[in-house]
Design a protein that fits this description.
Elements lengths: L3 H6 L6 H9 L5 H7 L1 H11 L5 H12 L3 H7 L1 H17 L11 H7 L1
Helix pairs in contact: 4-5, 5-6
């Protein structure tokens, strides 16, 4: 069985850092990425890795379309940014369950 990084490395624009970020967000295969789409996948990654830049969004879209990330950024930037804005507005409209912080009281209590 291939490792996640090897699977991702076969796709254009996605290297080991992108693979690690996707895995941390629960996206463990190209099939999962295809099912989600680039915008929701990027939003998931931002949820666990807030430092993710828009270059990752371009790379995810490029992996799905076969385009280089630079071409995606040049030709599809506006539509992807609008889709991201709509996705985030929809996500923020739904109530969320509170997530305990790693260094919070609940985490410390669970370690005892």
């Amino acid at each position: 069985m291939k490792t996640a990084s090897r699977d991702w490395a076969a796709w254009p624009n996605l290297g080991p850092k992108s693979a690690a970020a996707l895995k941390a967000a629960g996206i463990d295969s190209i099939a999962t990425l295809r099912a989600l789409g680039s915008v929701p996948a990027y939003a998931r990654v931002r949820g666990v890795w807030p430092a993710a830049s828009l270059n990752l969004l371009w790379a995810l879209e490029g992996a799905l379309t076969g385009l280089r990330w630079q071409e995606v950024a040049r030709e599809h930037r506006t539509s992807l940014l609008l889709a991201l804005e709509q996705h985030m507005a929809h996500q923020n409209a739904r109530p969320r369950k509170p997530v305990p912080r790693a260094g919070g009281r609940r985490a410390r209590m669970a370690m005892r």
